[in-house]
Write a structure and sequence with these properties.
It is built from 9 helices and 13 strands. By secondary structure, it is α/β, with parallel strands linked by helices. The chain has 2 domains: about 130 residues, 3-Layer(aba) Sandwich (Rossmann fold); about 110 residues, Dihydrodipicolinate Reductase, domain 2. β1, α1 and β2 form a beta-alpha-beta unit. The longest helix is centred in the last third of the chain and has 17 residues. It is globular, with a radius of gyration of 19 Å.
Length: about 280
């Protein structure tokens, strides 16, 4: 059995709660989350020690110990991207397959630093939104996508990744600029590609499911509502990554996504004006 180590800001959170059972099931018992480290305890949440006792996972007192004793590593902190680079320092130096949860990095520069660190030490690594693996996206038959309008729930800060990731996967990384067109309660961002293609992301609250309207250069249009088990597809992909050491997501896409999110936040302070992304 291969041992997986969790490294988190605090452990009593949804991803850490769900991943162990999902991974063990998807790997048919070949992989198990055995060790965990939490940087802090959060008021109103189970302490890291209480969470580990509940889950039957051994709490270790340092990231170094988790890296040393694990075969594979998962850096979590899904709602606190600002800690990803810090928490990833030893994992990315380890040479062991490492998954860094969404959102990968708070900005483009940090994303580049993390990839360069992993490459210097021969560490297989990737990050993704689980939405990338939704069957509605992966089975889409449409060539030459000209425009996308994506919708979904949640805040821009935490949930924009789930709309931007599929857009980049479908339309590519040649993003030139972004423009904020939303309101404080309904964030919206236009993503402009170098060749004139465009996509928009829109956050309309908890009762707005992930969905997407698409139009091709040939005039074909489709509407997708995401009903498939995208987390199941993501976990299956994660198991394959641990088995093979081959990341499923190109680094260029992850860096482009980080740049879109970084400059999208900057665009919010100057609505209805294009903000250029670095080339």
């Amino acid at each position: 059995m291969k041992k997986i180590g969790f490294i988190d800001y605090y452990l009593d959170e949804w991803h850490a709660e769900k991943y162990p059972e999902w991974i063990e099931t998807a790997s048919q018992g070949r992989m198990k989350v055995t060790y965990a480290y939490g940087k802090t305890n959060l008021e109103g949440k189970l302490s890291n020690s209480a969470w580990c006792e509940k889950k039957g996972i051994q709490l270790l007192d340092s990231i170094e110990s988790v890296v040393e004793q694990s075969d594979y590593l998962i850096v979590l902190s899904p709602d606190h991207v600002e800690f990803h680079e810090e928490l990833s320092q030893l994992p990315l130096r380890s040479g062991k397959p490492t998954y860094v949860d969404k959102t990968f990095a708070p900005d483009r520069a940090a994303a580049i630093r993390m990839f360069e660190l992993a490459e210097q030490h021969g560490t297989p690594m990737y990050s993704t939104s689980a939405l990338r693996f939704a069957a509605e996206y992966t089975e889409l038959k449409m060539e030459g996508i000209e425009s996308i309008c994506a919708l979904g729930p949640g805040s821009f800060e935490t949930y924009a990744i789930h709309q931007v990731e599929p857009i980049v996967a479908l339309m590519g990384t040649d993003v030139k600029r972004v423009m904020w067109t939303g309101t404080p309660n309904a964030p919206s961002l236009v993503i402009g590609f170098a060749d004139g293609r465009q996509a928009t992301i829109n956050h309309y609250g908890p009762n707005c499911p992930f969905s997407m309207a698409l139009r091709s250069e040939q005039g074909e249009s489709q509407f997708l509502k995401i009903d498939s088990n995208f987390f199941g597809a993501f976990i299956a992909n994660l198991v394959r990554f641990f088995d093979t050491g081959v990341p499923a997501v190109p680094r260029e896409e992850t860096i482009a996504i980080a740049a879109i999110l970084e400059y999208g936040k900057k665009a919010a302070s100057a609505p209805f004006q294009w903000v250029d992304l670095p080339s």
